[in-house]
Amino acid sequence: MDGIPVPRCSVADLAEGAAAGPLLGENGEVIDPLLFVDLGPADAGTLGAATHAAATAHRVLVGVVTGEPDERWRGLARALDVTLVPGGAARLGPEFACGGDPVADAAALHAAATACPRATLTLAQVLRATEPLGVRAALDVESFAYSTLLGGAEFARWLSARGTRPLPPPAAEPVLLARADGLLRITLNRPERRNAYGRELRDALTDALRLATVDDTITRVVLDGAGPSFCAGGDLDEFGTTPDLATAHLVRTRAGAGPLLHTLAERAEVRVHGSCVGAGIELPAFAGRVVAAPGTTFRLPEVSMGLLPGAGGTVSIPRRIGRWRTLFAALSGGAIDTDTALEWGLVDAVESGPS
């Protein structure tokens, strides 16, 4: 497997403790946050030992397959954080992800983990920890981790490089509402900012969703966005402006739109288009039905900022596509096209025109 970055090991090496070395140096620096595992022939005993080692490892473990996946690897693949396979071979299940070339995918993941090792490790820990939890408890775990990273050096570095930006100007109507019988249509209405999920838009959206939770004559909620994109993610000009990390946690978990969309899931449809970034797919993934316009793309860039998805994405997205593909999407930061999103279950349909 020439071209796969190091560190890397075989299944036998993993079984013998290759992932068990110290994770932190004397000064707290992260040592090898990500380890690649070459999936190849191994007997049942070795596979079992490797699976146990993977399930208890502190590093991010990425399996790599350059040939045809073997069904016998499924248990090990479930214990790993994701397994990269050639295009078309991901049909085995959500444990497997492909961007077409496992070597190129491995290089992208290695670069991201090297640049932001703490965010990488925290993301993997959150995805593993929240997998068995209910949605509300899982959202709390995500938010605790997000607040931790907000206080970290990797986010501080990103924020410093970005520089000071003026806060966005106020919006007259950040969200539009239209009622027709039992249908409530909610439209994100900051097209000049690509409907960035800033404070004003967030508060207006949660007010609208809260209305639907208390009015049982609203039998259907359709959420869409005005302008070129449904939502381009969090408003970057507001990043780092929360008074303190504890307040930031309470705002995310008690004043965000994710929990309300989860409550309304059976009645909610989200229609997305354009470039959907961060919250632009984290929030829709809570809904019972997500419809994408042709050409829509999805991206989770937060790890490159020293963070992890913080609008509920470590909860909503894994419940659609699995924690493995969620880690792949968030760590690679690459765009997911509509064909892949439909195949994975990130969206439920691809349709042109209004609902």
TrEMBL record:
Pfam families: ECH_1
InterPro entries registered for this protein in UniProt: ClpP/crotonase-like_dom_sf, Enoyl-CoA_hydra/iso
Signal peptide from the UniProt entry: none
CDD domains, per the entry: crotonase-like (cd06558)
Top-level taxon of origin: Bacteria
Gene3D superfamilies cross-referenced by the UniProt entry: 2-enoyl-CoA Hydratase, Chain A, domain 1
Annotated family: Belongs to the enoyl-CoA hydratase/isomerase family.
Protein name: Enoyl-CoA hydratase/isomerase family protein
